[in-house]
């Protein structure tokens, strides 16, 4: 399509699917779509086979699970500040609130007991004292009496929502160790009488876990050499399934005796299935793209497939025919795709380079089919995440506007094994991972995919921080412009203004708190280098962001004004950590493309 603005309208209507779940029996399916409604919303394929929107209102909605008996879905709504409200929605009828409306804390999950009128959730809140706390406690609320009971009181923050076993007897949750980089898996019974540690890999290592269909625990644990995948019973007896650094997180598969794990290779996700009885492993890896299995429905195997030219979708598939052309959509996606749109999408290309210390780094490049105006570097957040091979409306719009697009997976990214992910901790935020991005830009120039003075950097969250770092440290011939979105500017301000349950992540990545390593927090804060900016700057912020708060914006604006550095600001009053609403994404993508186009003239 030759008209970028018409293409943008089509791209914004393109359903982007995530957080899909298959009910335990396989009879029902639910997911989140962004692009279909003004904000992300929960949809489902009901037992009657209808595809219907289940969430309500204009706030963002996120899927949590299913109503007991599979009579509906459980989801939460978020006005943008992450103080979410949980709801239970039957297949027929209105949603019912099952927790506080816009609470004074940050909830984690909500699961309903299969027989009792109880909802279980995590919250960084002490209800007896009526005050927010740093750790996430595990709570049970009686929906008839509103009685609250703390089942577990960890001393340090956890990062998961508690997971209820299918019989309602036990909850799995993570508990931080003495080291901010480690966690253990714990069990607590639904009455809070018994609490014990189930899985522990060491103070500085992480363990992830999920229930299986038969009441065991599917886990992935970090080791000295990588990761191990296995099963545990409730007494802590372990059954090792694989010793493979590619495994990343366990899957809770529905309606099958097999167990599964998400694995990754070169930032492409695939699924490994295991038969616990025989130990046989089966790698489900399509020729291109990503495949995450959900389990079996009443007619066969179900998974989520995506690639850089095929939007993420829930599909039915034959395990012996993993070519995407053989998959069958279960969401009705094909009926929502504009005619001819997919054929015009530009595919991702692998791109490799070597960083300053000799580390091999990988990412993806998209080449504009038009005369190049410049190159946009889109840095992923996290940093514990990765830029994968998927349809991205932002990327495709920039291509239509005449920009090459580069997505670097710097050290610290997932998708390349544990050692690569952990390398970011060797120097901490603002260290060698920023060299990875800079040397990636240099490699692009050497490959003819970028020109000196015509490279811009943008990204959200840690991508925003990286945009700040590049514009304050790289010369303008490498980074001519930056547009940080919800990015940290002063790491001390960020530490004390962010959600209290997120502070240990900063401690893990920087080697301690601001009191323990004050010089590192200062030297890694872009706010102290804004006087060195020579390129163009556009700052984007969500006014409701509780993660990278607007205090970061206020702090850096004072520093920029004092240094006499010009800049532009774009604030979305109704957004939080990231810009998700359709109308706001339309505004953002156009503004960014215009900004970089002007900067590269």
Q: State the oligomer.
A: single chain
Averaging pLDDT over every residue, what do you get? 96
Judged by helices, strands and strand pairing, the structural class is alpha+beta
Give the CA-based shape.
globular
Kindly provide the name of the CATH class of the domain at 360-599: Alpha Beta
The amount of helix comes to 10-25%
What is the β-strand count? 36
Report the portion of residues in β strands. 35-45%
CATH topology (level 3) name of the domain at 360-599: Rossmann fold
Put simply, the count of helices is 12
What's the story with the biggest beta sheet?
8 strands, mixed
Topology (SSEs and partners):
Blueprint: H1 4-13, E1 16-22, E2 29-34, E3 41-45, E4 51-53, E5 60-66, E6 72-78, E7 85-90, E8 96-97, E9 107-112, E10 118-126, E11 131-142, E12 148-152, E13 163-164, E14 170-176, E15 183-189, E16 195-199, E17 207-211, E18 217-222, E19 227-232, E20 238-243, E21 247-251, E22 259-265, E23 268-274, E24 281-284, E25 290-296, E26 301-307, E27 310-317, E28 328-329, H2 333-336, E29 349-354, E30 360-366, E31 374-379, H3 393-400, E32 403-409, H4 418-422, H5 424-427, H6 432-446, E33 455-460, H7 462-473, E34 481-485, H8 491-497, H9 503-510, H10 518-523, E35 536-542, H11 550-563, E36 568-572, H12 582-599
Parallel strand pairs: 31-32, 31-33, 33-34, 34-35, 35-36
Antiparallel strand pairs: 1-2, 2-3, 3-4, 5-6, 6-7, 7-8, 9-10, 10-11, 11-12, 13-14, 14-15, 15-16, 17-18, 18-19, 19-20, 21-22, 22-23, 23-24, 25-26, 26-27, 27-28, 29-30, 30-32
Helix pairs in contact: 1-3
């Amino acid at each position: 399509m030759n008209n970028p603005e018409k293409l943008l309208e089509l791209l914004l209507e393109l359903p982007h699917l995530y957080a899909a779940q298959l009910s335990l029996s396989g009879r029902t399916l639910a997911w989140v779509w962004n692009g279909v409604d003004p904000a992300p919303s929960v949809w489902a394929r009901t037992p009657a086979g209808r595809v219907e929107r289940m969430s309500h209102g204009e706030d963002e909605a996120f899927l949590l699970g299913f109503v007991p008996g599979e009579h509906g879905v459980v989801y939460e709504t978020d006005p943008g500040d992450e103080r979410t409200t949980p709801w239970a929605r039957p297949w027929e009828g209105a949603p019912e609130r099952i927790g506080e409306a816009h609470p004074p804390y940050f909830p984690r999950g909500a699961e309903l007991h299969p027989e009792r009128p109880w909802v279980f959730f995590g919250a960084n809140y002490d209800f007896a004292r009526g005050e927010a706390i740093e750790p996430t406690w595990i709570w049970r609320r009686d929906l008839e009496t509103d009685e609250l009971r703390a089942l577990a009181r960890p001393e340090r923050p956890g990062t998961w929502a508690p997971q209820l076993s299918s019989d309602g007897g036990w909850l799995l949750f993570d508990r931080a160790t003495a080291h901010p980089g480690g966690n253990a898996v714990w069990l607590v019974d639904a009455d809070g009488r018994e609490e014990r540690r189930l899985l522990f890999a060491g103070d500085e290592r992480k363990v992830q876990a999920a229930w299986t269909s038969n009441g065991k625990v599917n886990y992935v644990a970090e080791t000295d050499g990588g990761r191990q995948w296995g099963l545990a019973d409730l007494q802590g007896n372990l059954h090792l399934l694989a010793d493979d650094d590619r495994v990343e997180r366990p899957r809770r598969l529905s309606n099958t005796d097999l167990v599964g794990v998400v694995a990754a290779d070169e930032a492409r996700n695939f699924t490994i299935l295991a038969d616990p009885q025989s130990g046989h492993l089966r790698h489900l890896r399509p020729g291109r793209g990503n495949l995450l299995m959900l389990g079996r429905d009443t007619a066969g195997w179900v998974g989520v497939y995506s690639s850089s030219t095929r939007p993420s979708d829930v599909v039915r598939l034959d395990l012996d025919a993993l070519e995407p052309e053989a998959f069958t959509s279960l969401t009705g996606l094909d009926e929502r795709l504009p005619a001819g749109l997919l054929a015009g999408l530009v595919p991702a290309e692998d791109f490799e380079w070597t960083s300053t210390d000799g580390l091999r780094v990988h990412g993806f490049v998209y080449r504009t089919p038009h005369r190049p105006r410049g190159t946009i570097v889109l840095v992923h957040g996290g940093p514990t995440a990765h830029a994968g091979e998927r349809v991205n409306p932002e990327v495709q719009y920039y291509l239509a506007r005449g920009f090459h697009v580069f997505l670097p997976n710097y050290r610290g990214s997932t998708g390349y094994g544990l050692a690569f992910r952990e390398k970011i901790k060797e120097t901490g935020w603002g260290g060698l991972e920023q060299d990875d991005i800079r040397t990636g830009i240099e490699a692009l120039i050497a490959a003819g995919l970028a020109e000196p003075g015509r490279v811009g950097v943008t990204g959200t969250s840690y991508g925003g921080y990286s945009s700040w770092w590049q514009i304050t440290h790289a010369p303008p011939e490498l980074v001519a412009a930056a547009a940080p979105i919800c990015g940290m500017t002063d790491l001390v301000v960020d530490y004390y203004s962010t959600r209290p349950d997120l502070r240990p992540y900063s401690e893990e990545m920087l080697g301690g708190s601001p009191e323990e390593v004050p010089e590192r927090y200062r030297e890694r804060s872009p706010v102290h280098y804004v006087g060195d900016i020579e390129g163009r700057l556009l700052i984007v912020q969500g006014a409701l962001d509780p993660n990278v708060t607007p205090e970061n914006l206020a702090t850096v604006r004072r520093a920029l004004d004092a240094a006499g550095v010009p800049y532009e600001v774009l604030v979305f009053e109704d957004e939080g950590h990231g810009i998700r609403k359709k109308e706001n994404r339309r505004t953002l993508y156009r503004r960014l493309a215009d900004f970089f186009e002007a900067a590269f003239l």
